[in-house]
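Q: My labmate handed me this sequence with no annotations at all. I'd like to see what the chain might look like in three dimensions before we decide whether it's worth expressing. Could you predict it?
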Amino acid sequence: MEPSKYLFEANFRYDGSSRFAEGNQWGFFPSLSVGWRLDQEDFLASQDWVSALKLRGSYGVLGNQDIPNFSYVNLIQTGHEYLFGGNVGSGVAVTSFRDPNITWETTKISNLGIDASLLNNRFDITIDLYDKRTDDILRPVNLPAQVGNLGGPIKNIGSVKNVGLDLGITHRNRVGSLDYGINLGLNYNINEVTNLNGEIIYGGNKFITLEGYPIDSYFVLESDGLFQSEAEIEANPFQNITTKPGYIKYVDQNNDNVINSDDRKVTGSVLPDYTYSFGFDLSYRRFSLNAFFQGVKGVNTYPEAIIAMPFWFATSVTERWANESWTPERPNAPLPILTSYEDSQNDNFLTSDFWLLDASYLRLKNIQLGYTVPERFLSKIGVSRCMFFVNGQNVLTFSKMNDFDPERNVKQANYYEYPSVKMYTAGINLTF
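A: Here is what I predict for the chain of 432 residues:
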């Protein structure tokens, strides 16, 4: 039976959810995909260098109803006492507003791809371009405390898009007694908040979600080196009456000659620009060697607390702070003048990009060397296969961050997370 040249598939879903009010419970979620096997066409069938080649495209819609039950109706809660006639009575109350018009959150995904196998299957290539857009995002909306101190409703507000590229390449070949394989994977993604209905979401004192920027971008002051003299402090916008040489200098973004929270800017993100991996498999006679590397690029973290800040609430100070902080004799030091965190949290330790770190890394996740014993030595003891191996995990890490493990939750501000363990093992694999 000849392979099909043209491929088509369609699915249609009509889902209902009791988590929405009547009239908003149902959603229609179609999907379809098409493919074209170019290698089956006459103009490519005679080409030896093309083993397989397919163009494909798809479009689909998914729905999300992951919210608490009865989020569309105001609920009455017990346990709220009230005073009446000098007596305390048991009561009930509505503690949060609800939106009866909420409905499905939808995600529309478009994809264009190429699958190719070339040069007698020596090269396999997969390329995907995707556009993922999520609309009517279900999220809670805060209300001012003056409005009865009530919790805000869950509403359909917000749109986010993710546009990117997925690439996978594999090469296999044999040269004499050497068999080898090489693989590469890459994902490049652009995340952008496209609609918040004019709202700005602040996450603590460091993060912001704003139209036109990635989710949870850093919103911090911009630093401009360290003050070197009292004259330089006088010539720059006012920061604090305690500012002195060796303190961080900040940029006056709005030109009002005062440094405050109005001078913060969006810079850096907890979402990487791209993630990648690569590896190889080698086999020479009875020896084998394989390795796998993984990495991310274009991601930031903002460490705080004990190791990042000196004398954090009466704790100690690191060797780097002791040896690389600013002094008049060391004007080009990478760290500001040595003070305790409490004494200069309104100066050196204002939230700024001075402390923002590049959390990119490349790590050798796994490497293994093996040796397979010849069969003639095994037949007498009833063993069909025997391989000795040594293995290492998280053996090497290349990163600008040397104080802690870069493969971590980059939104975690402290160093308390347990790092990835470096592990070495040796063993024997027997088949009877």
